[in-house]
Amino acid sequence: MSENNGYEPRIVGFLCNWCSYAGADGAGTARIKYPSNMRVVRVMCSGRVSPELVLRTFRQGADGVIVLGCHIGDCHYAEGNHRTAKRIPMLRNLLGYAGIHPDRLRLDWASAAEGPKLAEIVTDFTERIKELGKLETK
Amino acid sequence: MDAGRHPNVELLTYSEVVDVSGYLGNFHVRVRRKPRYVIEDLCTGCGECTEACVWKDRVPSEYEAGLGKRSAAYIPFAQAVPLKAVIDPETCLLLTRGKCNQKCVQACEAKAIDFDMKDTYVEFDVGAVVLATGYDLYDPTRMPEYGYGLDPDVITALQFERMTSTSGPTGGKVTTSDGRQPEAIALLHCIGSRDENHLPHCSRVCCMYAIKQAHMARDKTDAEVYQFYIDIRSAGKSYEEFYKRIQEEGTHQIRGKVSSVRRENGRLVVRAEDTLLGALVEVPVDLVVLMNGWQPAEGTKEVAQMFRVSLSPDGFFLEAHPKLRPVETNTGGIFLAGACQSPKDIPDTVAQAGGAAVQAVKMLARGVVDIEPTVAHVITERCTGCGECVLVCPYQAISLVEGKAEVNPALCTGCGTCVAACVSKAIVAEHFTDEQLVAQVIGLLAQEEPAYV
Hints:
Chain A contains four helices and four strands. Chain A is of the alpha/beta class. Chain A has one domain (25-132). Chain A has a four-stranded parallel β-sheet, with helices on both faces. A five-stranded parallel β-sheet of chain B has the order 10-17-11-12-13. Chain A binds chain B through residues 8, 10, 12, 36-37, 39-41, 43-45, 47-53, 56-57, 60-62, 71, 73-80, 83, 87, 111, and chain B through 308-313, 330, 374, 392, 394-395, 413-417, 419-421, 429, 432, 434, 437-438, 440-442, 444-445, 450-453.
């Protein structure tokens, strides 16, 4: 694990337009620091993130994928994130079969007002991916 | 009143919407009309049935906040629209026990009373909907430290309001429960509001009605008036001036939230920390008035589900944009007015109601609507008609037409949940296609250094 200490993982974050993306924006405005390893792709709703999209992202060389959406009950689209809450954990269970550690995929919720929480989640996730190191794909 | 008289307005009171289908411009609404046991067209509002009812002056009146009594056959209040009697099915002897000598029927000259009335349903098509379902007051019995419901001299602001009204149950006299003139009155702000254990939000209107009631208390009695507040929020035209005025009238302002009210030596002792003095204060008073906070009206969740609108974390209806689209919802054709969106006072409610009405009329008068370009569409050749997208769509925007999915762009909001669900890749979310998202991923991952975008 120690040889991974200097490794900067590449993480792709799918952030929903209404909560998490705005939350990331808020974190920036408030000058809250979090690792720059996460590169953000904006989607309208976390419900847009299909399992296939996550797998394609891993295939493109991402070491970790994080999906961030509105809290359950706060979804801009009423219940779009209910689907996310089912899909992503299901995919996590299956990732192991593909040789990808389930911890490389994370789902969490951050509202537009939760910049600090978002920074905390991303920091935590980045640390975990650093521990896991580079994702070796054949 | 004006709405009741307007030739283009049909009022359905004592009714509730039970089902809504369709979309902006084409809503189909089904309404249950509860039986009022009085034929509206015949009732003249004379009130003879109220006088004749065996329950006369025995049922606590909702309008008088429990201070006054009404009959089982009653007119809710003097300015009710429509000014028609209604029979309360929960107290009426005939309706609850099936036995009554029906004095109301004998008293009614118009022959308007009909105990055989049943629920009726009306259905109609509308182009737009304005939700104005209001609010409920926070139940102060959930904060037993203030003694509401335990001590008869702890009352709510609404009860105090009725007490100060010259047409109210006491004829405008402010008295304690045993009929004495109070020597001191305490007004407690933020009961339930701005409290993480109860309602985190500010109910916004209580400061101003508390100030008004402080004025009324000084006007109607010789009592000392103590206001216990966290902050006085008197933003609004002439509000701050009014606050200044009641200070000049000799009311006492104590900045601190009350921790308890207890009975001691026949008086109520209000205990609080005066945060300006940095000292604990205990004030003996004779009457305690609670400014209870506002919460979403009962049934708000059900209404939200029925009309497919979202709720904010505080449980009130969520507007489309807090600043730029405050009267619209994210569901096209559904607008918001009044306290169902957030606590607000009368001027703000009137302004928002006007705004909502104009937005609705504007949409209908124009005849066409602008929709976001980010809607989904189906590639018909790929669609297998499995119907998975129909199930996941939060807006019921997708339907199966001849075995193929079809997106109604007027209903679609572009969330993309269907795209993620489609196993045949037959639905495309415009501007958020798989190709576009993957292209972004490739671009982001291609750089060796973390991207600064």
